[in-house]
Amino acid sequence: MARKKKEEINNDSLKARLTDSSAKDMPAMDQPITEMLEINYMPYAMSVIVSRAIPEIDGFKPSHRKLLYTMYKMGLLGGNRTKSANVVGQTMKLNPHGDQAIYDTMVRLTRGNASLLHPFVDSKGNFGKQYSRDMQCAAPRYTEVRLEKICEEIFKGIDKDAVDMVDNYDGTLKEPVLLPTTFPAVLVNANQGIAVGMASNICSFNLAEVCAATEAYLKDPNADLLEVMPAPDFSGGGLLLYDKEAMRQIYQTGKGSFSLRSRYKVDKSKNIIEITEIPYTASVEAIIDNIADLVKAGKAKEIADIRDETDLDGLKITIDCKRGTDHEQLMTKLFRFTKLQDTFSCNFNILIDGSPRVLGVPDIISEWLNWRRKCISRELSFNLAKMKKKLHLLDGLAEILLDIDKAIKIIRNTELEEDVIPNLMKGFEIDEEQAEYVAEIKLRNINKQYILNRIADREKLKEDIADTEDILRSPKRIDSIIVKTLREVAAKYGQERRTEIVANEETHVFEESQIIPDYRLHLMLTRHGYLKKHTMNSLRNAGDLKTKEDDEIFMGFEAENKSDLLVFTDKCNLYKAHVYDFSDTKPGELGHFLNSELSMDEGEKPIFMISTTDYKGILFIAFENGKAARFPISSYETKQNRKKLLNAFFDGSKPVGFKFLSEDEDPDMVATSSIDKAVVFKCSLVPLKTTRTTQGVQLLLSKKGSVLRSLSLLAEVEVEDPEYYRIRKLPAIGYYIREKSLEAKQLSFDDLK
What we know:
- The chain is 33% helix and 22% strand.
- The longest helix is centred in the middle third of the chain and has 41 residues, at 361-401.
- 33% of the residues are buried.
């Protein structure tokens, strides 16, 4: 009723706006966009949220509810199956949508489609499969349906005023606002929906566990529900990689994610792997496409063939392996790169009294209990009214017991039929309803035994009325009814978990380093941004290394194939990659163009690179403004596999020199300025900072507009008298360079532009 009232308010508000003369007469081009959106778009958005995409506390969307209620009214609960087309046609009286949309809704609720842990529709025929993207269901004229036995629990009390009934869209029929489910169906079956500006994605839980968790919450709202309902359960089975703290977060907030992994078995005699259960969010076709792409890319060379062998016995994907394949290692790789392992993202968004709310599991159970208590109270009130009415009639019958002959005499001596009731009312001092009941007694029942039996029923009825009234006054007794019903439902319809819970630490995680060869190599970077990767053997036998005419190699070092490569650019960005991502180059090749390989921005240019396996070491950077910074490269280590880091270093001045040092290294360094001044200093003279964006400290003071020009290790340059340039505190003015006293041994950074 609350939802209906809310819709009426929204409709009245909308009509008022549409009939408002100022809005009506205003040309479309002069109408503010905010007002246009409110008038034309907001009603649609609210309709999608409230009346289409988001499930309510009974666990159903409106389309599900209308379909199931139609089947209930058609007598399909316990009756014979009927053609799906018949159900679709009848449902259109409640659901003003096309027949295909209604049939698609039915398909997901069927046992044949295998979408739900506890299907609501018993089906016969081809309804497709939830785990197949391409398997189409048969047309509704070929398939047959009826309601499953569990639907007794979702309709129990619906004919006893347990829920509100409202008019359908044309006012010719009544339909329920909610269905009076006797268990938290909202948690038992998976439900997804995309509305406007919001969505809902509710995973399914095991029915017996849900009932146990609800009972535990009733006894103690602070109970740890993970103890009785540890994790979701899916109709497709598979393995759930369990992280208790992450799951607890999902239970508390209604948001989060977890991973599902396929179940497989290995037949070593045939050298094949058979996959029999896949994640609920994946499809057979998508998995086969993923694996085929891996084989084409050369990342799954162990696979000889893959085929879909799904049949009437269930899902099966068969992988033929090549001789000598390590099956477990192959599957670990496939879990990493294909939908054989997938993530389910939870968003427990539910309509409560017409308003969408994201709730945790305890909150959902609490809301369901509050609603269920109201259903039981209404059902008991309905029964109480009927019992009181029956007692009232039996009270009138008790009066007849005093003189049956008198009643017969009154009836026989009454000339007109319409006077029988008034005469009985006068003769026994009973009301019209009681007199009507007495007058309708058959002639064969006007005997003492019949009337005494009815009077005995009267005493039992009084006891039942008193008991019902006591229940209505006692919340504890209503809760005991809920618990009793939950136990009965769990005993009758509960089943073993289909999805196995496996601790995260017990699962093998694929590491690319397991299959990647490791060897020493030499990396070089050219001024135009080409990366050359040479093995040590190819470098020994190489002549001149090929570069473009106006290009040259300006830095190089030895590295390992399994190390990480960090590339710094002139835009203060850092690009991360693995060295093994790049193939070995030959001396006659230009190398890998990093701008393309790393998807750099247009005009961006690599200026320095390092490699590391453990992110240990110190990065020293000198800037044109005379400052120098020293910080650990561990600041570039990230838990996620990020390929680009913004603000990799201080962006307030142009960098003129990079040096990568070990943590225990404290070498002498040489810095020169644009006015031919130089200093020699210990690296440790520049204090170590923790953040990578530090601007550092002033190394050389600017004189006559001078700037810092270069930074080198003392060992890289020839200095006749290094102590002449030595400084022991910062900042420094520097010393003029004596003629020919400071000469570079190798390529420096200073003329990189």
